[in-house]
Design brief:
Elements lengths: L8 H93 L26 H5 L3 H10 L9 H13 L4
C-alpha cells in the first residue's frame, strides 16, 4: 500500500445520492399511501351511501309490493262483489217472475248470493212460506250478506226489505 488513506469521498457521495433517492422514494410512497388511504375512505363512504340508497330502494319496493298486493285483493273482492250482484239480479228477476205467476206459499225462491263471498247465502228461504216464517236474526243476517242497511228498521221493516231484495215485492 502506498500509505495514503483511501479516498472515501466518491463512495460517500454515492451513498448520499442513494440515500437521497431512497428518501424521495419513501416520501413518494408516503404520498401514495396517503392517497390510497383517502381513496379507500372515499370508497368506504361511497359504499355506505350506496348501501343506504339500496336499503331505501328495498323499502320502497316492499311498500310498492304491499300496495300492489292490497290492490289485487281489493280487485278480487270487487270482482266477487260484481259477480254476486249480477247473480242476484238474475235470481231476483227469477224470483219475481215465479212469485208473480205462482202466488202459492210453496213457490220456490232462488237463493241470493252473499256479496262478500260470492256464495249462496246460508239460511236463505227456499219458499215464500219459509220467508214468512224467518226469525229476526236470520233475516238480519241475510240482509247483512246483501249489504243492506237495516239497523234502524223494526221487524216489519226488516221483512219488507227482505221481500223486496228477494223478489222485488213490498208487503
Amino acid at each position: 500500500m502506498n500509505g495514503h488513506a483511501p479516498n472515501l469521498q466518491p463512495g460517500l457521495d454515492d451513498y448520499r445520492q442513494f440515500t437521497s433517492i431512497l428518501l424521495r422514494i419513501n416520501a413518494h410512497l408516503d404520498r401514495l399511501d396517503e392517497r390510497m388511504n383517502a381513496a379507500e375512505a372515499r370508497a368506504t363512504t361511497n359504499e355506505q351511501r350506496v348501501a343506504a340508497h339500496l336499503d331505501r330502494l328495498d323499502e320502497r319496493m316492499a311498500a310498492a309490493e304491499a300496495r300492489a298486493t292490497a290492490n289485487e285483493q281489493r280487485t278480487a273482492a270487487l270482482h266477487i262483489r260484481i259477480m254476486a250482484m249480477a247473480n242476484n239480479l238474475d235470481r231476483r228477476a227469477q224470483n219475481a217472475a215465479c212469485c208473480q205467476f205462482f202466488k202459492s206459499p210453496l213457490t220456490a225462491l232462488a237463493p241470493l248470493v252473499d256479496l262478500r263471498t260470492g256464495h249462496e247465502i246460508l239460511g236463505f228461504p227456499t219458499t215464500l212460506a219459509e220467508l214468512s216464517q224467518l226469525d229476526e236474526a236470520t233475516a238480519r243476517s241475510i240482509l247483512d250478506a246483501l249489504e243492506v242497511r237495516h239497523e234502524e228498521r223494526d221487524w216489519a221493516g226488516v221483512i219488507e226489505l227482505l221481500r223486496y231484495h228477494a223478489y222485488y215485492k213490498y208487503a
